[in-house]
């Protein structure tokens, strides 16, 4: 359930499968630039990040009778320049695809936050976990606006935990080891 706190984050390890029920915030490149700009000016964000999970997604328009269209993850590295500042404001988890920068990994360990991956290419499946959707900031950005999604059993895998665990690096090591043996 969201919001999440330090105890919940501390219980997660790289490789764990999780199902999120509650609220997710969404934001992509342009929204991140705007949020970062507000922080640089010493202004408040238009929403509270304490205990929040931020999903890097730009959903497609909803079909009739659905709260959202396809909602697959965006490459996370594009938000890396902004992520440490958002973690300082209480953000507890991010969801996307691909690896994070060393600076983001360090900030996550320091701020007790985790990085989760959602399966790329499964946007329609992921959209099926969304029960409600509302734009909470920057509606003029269209699909890159900031949404609050109400989700049930949204599937993710913990990639980076607060202990330095990294599922991507672990996978690379296993692959190299298996290749050396054969």
What does this structure look like?
The protein is α/β, with parallel strands linked by helices. It has one domain (6-181): fumarase. It contains 6 helices and 6 strands; from the N terminus they run αβαβαβαβαββα. A 5-stranded mixed β-barrel has the order 1-2-3-4-6. Strand 5 (130-137) and strand 6 form a beta hairpin. It is globular. The N and C termini lie far apart (44 Å). The model has no long low-confidence stretch (mean pLDDT 93).
* Biggest sheet character: 5 strands, mixed, barrel
Strand content: 15-25%
Which descriptor suits the 3D outline?
A: globular
CATH third-tier fold name: fumarase
Helical fraction equals: 25-40%
CATH superfamily: Fe-S hydro-lyase, tartrate dehydratase beta-type, catalytic domain
Q: Based on DSSP secondary structure assignment, what is the total number of beta strands?
A: 6
Q: Counting H and I runs of at least 4 residues, what is the number of helices? A: 6
Numbering strands along the chain, what is their spatial order in the largest sheet? 1-2-3-4-6
User: By helix and strand content, what is the structural category?
Assistant: alpha/beta
Question: Any low-confidence stretches, pLDDT <50, length ≥5?
Answer: none
Query: Overall mean pLDDT score?
Result: 93
Instruction: Return the CATH architecture.
Output: Alpha-Beta Barrel
In whole angstroms, the N-to-C terminal distance is 44 Å
Supply the number of structural domains: 1
């Amino acid at each position: 359930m969201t919001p999440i706190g330090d105890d919940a984050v501390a219980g997660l390890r790289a490789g764990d499968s999780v199902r999120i029920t509650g609220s997710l915030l969404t934001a992509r490149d342009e929204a991140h630039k705007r949020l970062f700009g507000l922080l640089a000016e010493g202004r408040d964000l238009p929403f509270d990040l304490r205990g929040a999970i931020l999903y890097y997604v730009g959903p497609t328009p909803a079909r009739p009778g659905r709260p959202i269209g396809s909602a697959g993850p965006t490459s996370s590295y594009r938000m890396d320049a902004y992520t440490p500042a958002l973690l300082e404001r209480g953000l507890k988890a991010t969801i996307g695809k691909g690896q994070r920068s060393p600076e983001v990994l360090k900030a996550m360990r320091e701020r007790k936050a985790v990085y989760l991956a959602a399966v790329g290419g499964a946007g329609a499946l992921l959209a099926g976990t969304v029960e409600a959707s509302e734009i909470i900031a920057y509606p003029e950005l269209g699909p890159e606006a900031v949404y609050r999604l109400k989700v049930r059993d949204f599937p993710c895998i913990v990639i980076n935990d607060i202990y330095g665990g990294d599922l991507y690096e672990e996978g690379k090591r296993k692959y190299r080891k298996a290749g050396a043996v054969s």
